[in-house]
Amino acid sequence: MQAQKAQGTEDLFGGYMRAWQHMQEVASTLFDAYGFDMIETPAMEQVDTFVHGIGESTDVVRKEMFRAVSGALYEQVMGAGSESGLKPRQRLALRPEGTAGVVRAAVENNLVPQGGAPVKVWYAEAMFRGERPQKGRLRQFHQVGMEWLGAADPAADAESIIVLMEFYRRLGLDASKLRLKINSMGDATCRPAYRDSVRSFILDHADEMCDDCIERAEINPLRAFDCKNDHCREVMAAAPKVTDCLCDDCAAHYAQVKAYLDEAGISYEEDPTLVRGLDYYTRTVFEVEYAGDANIGAIGGGGRYDGLMELEGGKPTPGIGFAVGFERIALALSDAGVDMAGEEPGCVYVANTDPDLRGAAFTATLALRGAGIRTEADYQGRSLKSQFKQADKHHARLCVILGPDEVAAGAATVRDMSTHEQVSVPMGELAEGVTRMLG
User: Computed from CA positions of residues 123, 125, 130, 134, in that sequence, does the dihedral angle turn out positive or negative?
Assistant: First the structure.
């Protein structure tokens, strides 16, 4: 039986891989200007890392998280100077999103000491969710995200949104095809009363709601706004709105975020039903939808999570961040007619007219690669004509030709593959000469 990839996964190669690399390069340049450093956390964390922050009532935790256990039911513990014994196996999960792992790392490594400067990090990693595979929604997918820990100022909220919109612009998405939605979810002061009012609303309309929403009413009623059932969403449109229940501090914070966005010229829509899909959010939340011809929907979003550090065992620390999905952005760019992959990279091809000259070709190849020039050569004993064909397949811009006359003269013939013009270049100056010809 032929080996096949797991359902809901994709192989990244060729133009698709170049597109993913380009997205990371754009992120690196942009985030560096805002003072963000790159971080990578383990693809596997203890289950509680995600349950604490994401929330037990979310579909991610209840239905989609890939869980595993470490080894046998119990593992043998052997330590120097200690008695041997047994410890329970670890309950592990593949990361379904990036924020919880970053916050866990911040707590464990004391990245944000009390009174210290805020920490700003970004990541580009694979995520895993056990949902039904469909276009733009896979079981292994890729995200670029950023997290800003230690900044409570509403300017941090606005700047995060500004960075997100600039990221889309640099990737090639027109602002006219993007719809930015924002909302405030309140905090520990005002949200409990609001949750109770939404819970009462759901129970009053229990005969119209799905079983999942009835269950959410007891665990986290705000999740009902995020229900995938169309009728539930219609019913919840009449539910109490969080922006009508904000405390003075949350209302002032939200107003200031909007003022900063207005000052920056960022267009947005207020959506009082926007709660995002994870429980750790507080105050500002935001989401970006693609409004082009394709039915793609949300292509990224994020928000503030001021209580997550405490849930992961750390000291009270404000935080905000966002994440964008590569696969969904690739669909949006394709719909918009933008090629994120770019052209296949060209190269210089080193050809030889006789197998006995393979050593000279090897030396020339090393010299060119040592100068940072992408170089290919024949490794299958092809004829010169076949080597030229191979050079075309590699999109070679120049071909370095080595024959008996060239080797005897200590030079190489360099051929421009588009104009077919040829010049002789001394072997000792090959790298410099080829660099000049490449421009």
Answer: positive
Encode the chain (439 residues) as per-residue pLDDT tens digits: 899 999 999 999 999 999 999 999 999 999 999 999 999 999 999 998 888 767 665 667 777 788 887 665 455 555 555 555 556 667 889 999 999 999 999 999 999 988 778 999 999 999 999 888 887 789 999 999 999 999 999 999 999 999 999 999 999 999 999 999 999 999 989 988 888 998 899 989 988 889 888 888 888 888 788 788 888 988 888 998 888 889 999 999 999 999 999 999 999 999 988 887 667 889 999 999 998 777 888 999 999 999 999 989 999 999 999 999 999 999 999 999 999 998 889 999 999 999 899 999 999 999 999 999 999 999 999 999 999 999 999 999 999 999 999 999 999 999 999 999 999 999 999 999 999 999 8
Residue 199 lies in a domain: no
Same domain, 172 and 102: yes
> Tokens in use for 54?
């994401």
| Whether residue 422 sits in one domain with residue 280 | no
Please say whether the beta carbons of 43 and 126 come within 8 A.
yes
> Could you give the number of structural domains in the chain?
2
For 105-122, b/e burial (b = at least 16 CB within 10 A) is: bbbeeebbeeeeebbbbb
Here the CATH number for the domain that contains residue 101 is 3.30.930.10
| Its pTM surpasses 0.85 | yes
Closest C-alpha to 393, from 376, 381, 411: 376
Residues 123 and 26 in one domain: yes
> Do residues 122 and 51 both lie within one domain?
yes
Q: Strand, coil or helix: what is 338?
A: coil
CA-CA distance, 67 to 92, in Å (whole number)?
Answer: 6
Which whole-number Å values give the CA distances from 283 to 18, 59, 182, 196, in the listed order?
Answer: 37, 21, 10, 17
Residues 385 and 256 in one domain: no
Of 322, 350, 347, 336, nearest in space to 407 by CA: 350
Sheet holding 44-46, edge to edge: 44-46, 91-94, 67-69
Specify the CATH number for the domain of residue 392.
Answer: 3.40.50.800
Q: Are 326 and 431 found together in one domain?
A: no
Asked if 270 and 243 count as a contact pair (C-beta separation under 8 A), the reply is yes
- Tokens 């590699």, located at residue: 394
Nearest Cα neighbor of 173 from 57, 11, 290, 315 is: 290
